[in-house]
Each structure stands twice: as C-alpha cells, then as structure tokens.
Amino acid sequence: MVVALAGMAVWAGAVQAQTATPDTSHSTTLPVVTVQGAGAASATLGDAYAATRSRSATKSDTAILDTPQTINVVTRTEMDRQGSNSVVQALRYTPGVVGQYADTDVRYDWLTVRGFTPQRYLDGLVLPFGIRGYAQPRIEAYGLERIEVLKGPSSGLYGQSGPGGILAMTSKRPTEERLNEIGLQTGSYGRAQTSFDFSGPADEEGKFLYRITGVGLKSDTQYDYIDDKRAFIAPSFTWKLSPDTQLNISAQYQHIESNGGGGAPVLPYIGTAEASSKGRIPRDRYVGDPDYDRYTNRQTLLGYTLDHRANDVWSFRQTARVSNVDSNSRRTQIGLMATDTQAVRYAWAFPEKARAFQIDNQANARFKLGESEHNLTLGFDYLKEQSRFVESQLQILTSGRSYALFDLYNPDYGNLDLHAPPDATIINQRRDQVGIYAQDQADFGKLRLTVAGRQDWTTTHTDTWLASGTDTGVDAHANRFTGRVAAAYRFDEGVTPYLSYSTSFQPVAGTTRTGATLKPTTGEQYEAGVKFQPAGTESLYTASLFQIVQDNVSAPDPVNTSYSVQTGQVRIQGLELEAKARLARGLDLTASYAYSDSEITKTNAADTTGQVGNRMIFVPKHQAAMWLDYTLQQGPLAGLGMGAGVRYRSGVYGDLNNTHELKGVTLVDAALRYDLGRMTQTLRGADISLNVSNLFDRKYVVNCPGPTACYWGNERTVLANLRYRW
After folding, report:
1. Strand partners of residue 427
2. What's the rounded Cα separation, in Å, for the pair 498 and 500?
3. What pLDDT digit, counting tens, does each position of 338-392 carry?
C-alpha cells in the first residue's frame, strides 16, 4: 500500500507537469481577511485542496513547504465537498487521526492524533477542557475556515500540549468583498438544518468589516430516543485602525441539547463485537431511560486579536479570549450483564463547568544578519482556568428487592420515576499557567534552521469532596522547559527534506479515583520527512517517519472509567503519507496512509497485568484513505460534480490489557453536486449537493474500552443540501 501511494504521487506529479495549469475561470475564492497581518497565512491554491501557508505551526506566516513539521490541512472547500458537519467528519481522510467513537457522539469531538488526545486550539488559543472533559466546547464545523493538524510536540511555542500533535482550527473572519450565503440541509433521521453566512464591508471606505455566521439544527440520530438540537451564532468585526494596525473582535455562542443523553449508547461486547445467544444488538438500540436521560451544553467564547506592524522589521500581535462552558449530563447506562441478553443498569448525573481566560502576546522580527535571514518570534502567554465537576452516586435500577433487568433485544422503557441521585464527588480545580517562548527561523541560503524554546510555570489547586465526608485540597506545581530543533533544505525542484527533534509538556486536568492530582505528561519526538510541491501545480505531497515516547500516560481507570490512571511510558513509531493534488482541471485528490506501531514500554508499578509490550488503545496499525472529486468543465452537464472516497482502518484495542481486538473496517463515501446557475442565469449562485457516508451501510464496532462499553459506528447517512450565494 505504501508503494502504491508513493507510485501514485509520482504519477500524479508527472500528469500535472504535462497537463495541469492553475485555472480559476470557474472557481469562487472567498478572500478571507483576517487580522493575521497577511492573508497568505491561511492561503490555499485557488479552490484546490492543498494549502500553501500556515500561521499555526510557527506563529508566523510561513510556507508549509518550509516548515519542518508534518502539517495536515483541511480547507473549507474540502469540508464542503465531503459534506463534513463536524470536526471528526472533516478529519476522516487525514492520516494518523482516529475518531474514537466515529461521529456518533453529538456532544463532543473525540479524537486521537498519532495515538494521543490532541489539545484543541481555536484562532491560536487553547480551548477549555474541564476536569473530566465534559466541559469542553464542541466547535461548529460550519463556522470554520480551515482545520490544521500539527503533528508532533508543539510545546516549544504553545506550551501545554501532548506529543501527538495539536488541532488548530481557524474561524471564519470578515471579508473585504461582500458575501451572502444561506443554506438548507435535510437527510437521514429527519434532519432539518438552516445556515447563513453574511460578510463584507460595513462602510464605503472598507475600514470596518463584519461577518455573522449561524446554524440551527433539529434532528434525530441513529439511536432511538436520542436527538440533536443546536443553535450556533458567531459574529465578528474587523476595524482597520490604520494601514499597519487592525483589530478583530469575535464571539460565538452555541447551545446544544439532546434528549436521551447525547452520547452513543454504551453496549456489551457480547452482542456487538461478538454475537450473543440472540445475535447482535440492533444498531439503533437505546439502553437508557427516555424520561431521565438528557444533555445540555451552553458555550460562549468572546475574544479579540490586535495586530500592529511597527516598521519593516517588527510586528506585534495580542490575542485574548474569555471562555465559558456549562454542561449538564444525566444518563442511564449498563453496569453489568446478568445474562448475555439482560443487563443491570444504573442512573447517574455528571454536570461540569469551566471558565477560562487567556492572553498571548507575540513580537515578530524579520531581518538579515550577515548572509543569513531571520524570522524571530518572541512571546508571553497566560492562562487561568477554573472548573467544577460533580458526579452523583450510581443509582442501581431495581424492581422491588431485585435488580430490574433490561432486555437488550426486547426493551421496556419508562415507569422508573428516576431523579438525580445524591452527589458522590465534587471537584473544584483552578489552574494557572504562565509561559515565555522564543523561536528563530534562520535561512542560510536554501538551508533553514529552526530553534524554539519555551519555559512554563503551572500551578494547579484541586479541592475534592467525597460523600463519605472526606474533604481534601491538593496543590501541584509543574515547571518545564520544552523546545524544538529542526533543519530543512529546499531544493529548486520543490522538494524539501527535513529533520526535527521536539519535546512536550502537558499538565493533566483531573484526578485519580482516590483524588490525587494527575502528574504532567512529558514526551519527545524524532521526525524525518520530505515535502514535495511540483512547480506550477496546485498540489502538495508529504511523507514522514517519526518516533514518540511519552511518560505519565493517562488511560481510563478499569475500576471506574470516569477516572484515569497513569500507566507509565508508551512508545509509538510510524510512517505517514499524504497527497493533496489537483490532477487535472476540475479533478482533485486527497490520499493518505499511516502505519503506527505502538507499545506500552513501562508501567508505574510491577506489571502484574502483563500490559508491558501491549499496544496502545485506539491506535490502528494501518490507516488508508482516498477521496477523488471531479467537476465537469464543458458540455451539457458542465457544473456537475461527483466525488467518491474509501477509508480503511485496521483492528484496534480498546483496553490496555488488549483483551479483544476489534476488527478492521472499510467504508465508502460518495457525493454529487450541481451548480444550478449552469442551467439558467435565474438560478445563478444556487447549488445543490448530495452526500452519503458509509454508502454500503457497513456494520462495525468503533470502540470497546470494556466488556460493557462498546459502541456501534455510524450507519449509512444521507445529506441533501441547497445553498444560495449572492
């Protein structure tokens, strides 16, 4: 498969060298004007899938080809053509990224990158997570301009992040040209969604720009009794104070509500991955209580970015944001199996809140020093996050003096008169983090050396109250220096090989089951790679080899998966390939492959479980994906577009003991779209599209961290869209 993908890249480059030239006669490019000081910082090649520049990886406007790090970018064009309604969906063709529950959880985007949970950033600032991860915002995909996956440790600039990588999302920002868009979407499970996106200058001089984006959704899901209702609105405003100074103020509010608890039903291994005496449990089976289970999430983000260019050398940026996330969850779940078809359930509640303030100050200088050219970045940032998590007692459902058995194949709902159980645990946590950092990108002709370093000081105070009467307070202090050293050499042919070494440091939010504060994780990565952008083409090919070692790794506590244990040390090494290519006029390709060899190398205590040598959870050895999209350019069907994709993931383990390996799965997606303006000028600006995920309705288990904690993957999903722009 690796050989095939490499051969495909060579063939594609040859085809492009002969036939492909940039064509914009039938494309619509939205000129995104951000306060980054340079629109090129988020540039793509026309409406192609390949991005050319990134600000996230280096905190300065840098060509991706010159950045000594693997960067996977999903553009707005690619998201639209693949029908991506969530961040998880947008990244399904990205190598090394795994959706832990596919896209069945309406509450959150659960992902791993190179085997680790990525820290999520929006517009350069980290998003709150809370103590247990329930008070994290789910970012609306329609409100994003692009998503970047920065592979490997980024602590040298960002501080608190794991070794696998970070997720850097960029919001839609005001445009200099007027944009008006409304959309309607319907499809599987009675989906009804409306969206709008309005942007442009607010005055004749173009000194003030605005944008307002919104989504309203009401839908059922593939599970009985679980629905998905949400409202999202994101206004932003840009003020050009002078030719050298810009201020952008942005806000977003989202309300998510789900009867049925929002999360996918948690099912037993026997009945999903393996058949029970009555076969397999239906994929729409709901195991909760419709009158009790409920999920709500209210999230508010308000921030600004101020950019100022002092002269030809120095520029300054300040970004700040206040975040507020308030989630409330009540669920009824399976506690144990009485037989292979009947379960004992329990009810519980686990509300969580998180408040965060953060500010990042950057100074950037571009100058020459002798024969070398430098791009120097200096920065200081501060984060304060306060979280509160409440977990109720587990109320076992009974009938008289006996357990109330729930038949998974003939369920009987209701008549339970459930109320929120008494509190069992209350945790209040406050975290303060201060960081200073510096980076120099020095060019010596075609050789670029990148050196970055950062010092972090983090203080975490955790108060834990237990129903038993225990009340404890724990202070944890973590100071760490992290960094990156890398070298890249750019050949004239558009080939850039690179080598890098980087380290990570991440304070871990949460406690163990006993109330102890979790230790910060530390990690390091060695990476060697090559990037190739054929001259005169709208394509980018990347390949990388890497090895990551992380200490103090967290995993679900097998006694109570709401808590974590730290298993010691893990290692993952692998290969990643990606192609973002315009093969010919109107023909676009995304292809990727990832090989990941993971291993638990140490545990904190005597290895009585035999976990040393086991594979990490949620890490498939092989991933491969390909999406091909073509738009007819001429003839009576000009404007008709079609796309098809295939995704493969090999088997994964859901638990550290590697008890059962879930089978691999291959899924097929398809898309059709048509520009109605090609039919008649009256419909100019209107287009329709149809997207189908899991076209052949493949039945598979996506995750199984325990014997009664398995999850079905997504069924076939059909979405129809009508969009009008003017």
Report:
1. 389, 464
2. 7
3. 999 999 999 999 999 999 999 999 999 999 999 999 999 999 999 999 999 999 9
H or E stretch at 280: none
Residues near 4 by beta carbon (within 8 Å), at least 6 away in sequence: none
The whole-model pTM stands at 0.91
Phi and psi for 695 in degrees, rounded to 5?
A: -50, -40
Any idea what the Cα angle at residue 212 is, between residues 206 and 216, rounded to 5°?
A: 165
| φ/ψ of residue 650, rounded to 5 | -75, 180
Distance separating alpha carbons of residues 264 and 267, to the nearest angstrom: 9
Cβ–Cβ under 8 Å, residues 153 and 163:
yes
Distance CA 445, CA 715 (A): 53
CA distance to 141, 308, 509, 674, per residue, from 723 (Å):
16, 37, 42, 11
Report the run of H or E that residue 19 belongs to, with start and end.
helix 2-19
Question: CA-CA distance, 172 to 30, in Å (whole number)?
Answer: 10
pLDDT of 236-273, one tens digit each? 999 999 999 999 999 999 999 999 999 999 999 999 99
In the chain, the amino acid numbered 72 is: N
Domain spans in the chain, listed from the N-terminal domain onward: 2-725
User: H/E element holding 193?
Assistant: strand 191-201
Cα–Cα distance, 129 to 408 (Å, whole number): 34
* d(C-alpha 123, C-alpha 144), whole Å: 10
What's the CATH number of domain 2-725, 2.60.40.2550, 3.90.470.20, 2.40.170.20, 2.60.120.10? 2.40.170.20
Would you say 602 and 568 are in contact if contact means Cβ atoms under 8 Å apart? yes
Tokens 């080598």 belong to residue: 499
Cβ atoms of 218 and 231 within 8 Å: the answer is: no
Indicate the pairing of strand 564-566 with strand 165-171: unpaired
Q: For residue 90, what is the enclosing H or E element?
A: helix 87-90
φ and ψ of 350, to 5 deg: -150, 70
Contact of 8 with 591, CB cutoff 8 Å: yes
Cα separation, 639 vs 643, in Å, equals 13
Spell out the residues 6+ positions from residue 292 whose beta carbon is closer than 8 angstroms to its own. 330, 332, 347, 416, 418
How many residues in the chain? 726
